[in-house]
Amino acid sequence: MAIENLATLWHWSPTLGVGLLQNIKISVGAIGLGTLLGLLVGMLLLSPLAPLRGVAWLWVQVFRNAPWLVLIYFTSYVFPFDIQVAGSWLTFPDWLKVTIGLALPASANVAEIFRGAVASIPGTQWEAARSLALSRAQILRMIILPQCLQRMLPPWMNLYAVVTMGTALASLVGVHDLIDSAQIAANTVNRSGFTVLVYFSVLALFFSYCYPIARLTQRLERRYAF
Amino acid sequence: MSTVLHGLVGQLGQVGLDYSFLFDAYASSKLLEGALTTVWLCLFSMVGSLLVGMVLAAALTSGRYWLAWPARAFVEVTRNTPTLVQLYCAFLVLNMLINQSLGNANPMTPFAWVVLVISLHKGAFHAEALRAGIEAVPAVTLEAASSLALSRRQQLLQVQLPLALRFALPALVNNLIDLVKMTAVASAIAVNDITYASIMIWTQGDNVIELMILILAFYGLLSFGVNCMGRVLEARLRMPGYGH
Amino acid sequence: MPSEPLIQLREVHLAFADNPVLRGIELQVQAGQAVSIIGPSGSGKSTILRCMTGLLRPQRGSIRIGDTQVEQLHAEKELIALRKQVGFVFQQYNLFPHLSVLDNLLVAPTKVLGRNRDEARDQALVLLDKVRLGHKAAAFPGELSGGQQQRVAIARALAMRPKLILFDEVTSALDPEMVGEVLAVIRELTEEGMTCVLVTHEMRFAEEISDQVYFTEHGRIVEHGSAEQLFRAPQHERTRAFLQHALGEGGDRPSRPAPDVFSNLGRYSLSV
User: Fold this and answer.
1) Cα(B141)–Cα(B147) distance, rounded to whole angstroms?
2) Does B235 touch chain C (CB under 8 A)?
3) C151-C52-B144 Cα angle (round to 5)
4) Contacts of A78 in chain B (CB under 8 A)
5) What's the DSSP call for residue B207?
6) What is the pTM of this model?
7) pLDDT in tens, C131-148
8) Domains and CATH numbers, chain A
9) Where do transmembrane segments lie in this chain (chain A) (predicted)?
10) What interface predicted TM-score (ipTM) does this complex get?
11) Per-residue pLDDT tens for B137-155?
12) Is residue C55 within 8 Å of residue C86, measured between CB atoms?
């Protein structure tokens, strides 16, 4: 009985593998887009102009306090099925909608990580740089940001792991990810023993991807501990 | 009351947001039901997660490897896998198995499964925060307690736990705010929370954005409430002058 | 009065892993005496005190306090019984930061000795007055200076009405201007007849209040005797060298009149 289920699992593993790749694709896209957006928002948070700071603050508040599932539903329904680009219609794929949906809270978190990293640089660094007659932009670029990047790395990696786990929500809006594939497999095979096996395999697959990231993050945190 | 609501809807209508569904008895009652369900989910899960967190933290710091290792394994698996998958494993797998053996005598409802899974998931995070808090209590403070003839148990209750709780409090409050957001996964197994209710409504009409703003505001309000509660607790438990 | 010493250490040996810290300590303290242990860092002075209160266990030797053989205590109940009689004041004060000063003094008497809370409160306030901190009863440790915290720590140890108190370099972590207020409290205790064992670097204070002084180096008692004897006429080469280094003056001072020491008493006036 167990052997039969394992054999069935092996039979389905290519489908599950393709599903997992979808999750990874979404997670990489989301963290990439989220980081770019987040750094932008983060810089706005530090702007000397109050309105810019206000907009950035609002962005962070909204997207940090929103359930990720709600945001994914939002982007899935709000974006059209296809868009016109340079005269021809391109389908707006579901996975892209989820990617954008996850990039939004990711950007808010990146902005906070960035702000925290800048705040953790001792004020004495700023003073020393200013006394060397560097402008604010120069100080940021040459002194503060390089140090920030190091401090941002562990929480950023932690965020990536969380985003990867968030990609599981894609299955709820029709993306053919790992969970969706597992559901199809379970419903097709329709044996309770196999259902147990396939869902716990999904758990194991996510674990084997996210746990090493967590350990690496811990190692980096210890190395950069100050 | 309803005149205020009419006025508000009218104003929002001018901005292009159609909130007229609030006057539809079916829609508004579903939303209200959903909101209440979400509140109950939050309350039960918060209490459950704190209990789980305390038990796990005790196991993690017990010093006995037969307690600490399983606890550590549980924490790592829970923290590194998606909540949704855990929910499916619980609801689709375990529930199915229970149904097969108990038939109609299965006491677990989908609501109960959500509370259980979220309590376990967030409990793992609480456990880490409490563990860090317990380990942050300086050994010399405990030494001083023991030199005053306090027993191990008295040291734990009078010195170690109060201090650990104060150290862990900010992280615990953050976890609880996350928990509020996490309850949205209940909609995935058709528990009628506010997210599910909204989905039901917007699949029938074209008011996704309006509903989105409404439920985001609702979750935001709940998070804000938990945050305030955390601030009050932090103020009550503060240690004047500590840390310099 | 010649009688059985209250504290007696015989042939105490203790090693951490392969590192011998105490190599045969012999020490005794009569009831009501004040005994100081001096010596270079790493000589094992603090270790001796920790053995006396059961925080460390020697590999060999006998430690008798009153009727108790400390090195044979194993059960928690037995250690608790010991610590009801032996007060300990740490270098880093170690007050409980989440409790007010008053509550710091109440925890042990109410939870361990089972005293009535109101009674314990009255006695705690008396003790706080004694260390001149009655007005700080509601304050929290984080709001006090180092010297104030250490005085609270002494009051906290006194609240248990111990038979003797051990002081482990209690002024070493303090800013110089706060040392005096703490030493004044200790002096008062010795004058009242409390049995005290001090590990200290305050040589002049040790000379002033001690009945006996022990000089340790490398885990052994090099020399011991009355304060006058050890400080004025040290017999051992090493004692002389240490005192010379520590006091910055010649080891033998037979020609120095005694008042020279007492003229420094102004330094130990109590600051409030």
Assistant:
1) 10
2) no
3) 40
4) 208-209
5) -
6) 0.82
7) 999 999 999 999 999 999
8) 2-79+88-223 (1.10.3720.10)
9) 26-46, 66-92, 159-176, 196-214
10) 0.85
11) 999 999 999 999 999 999 9
12) no
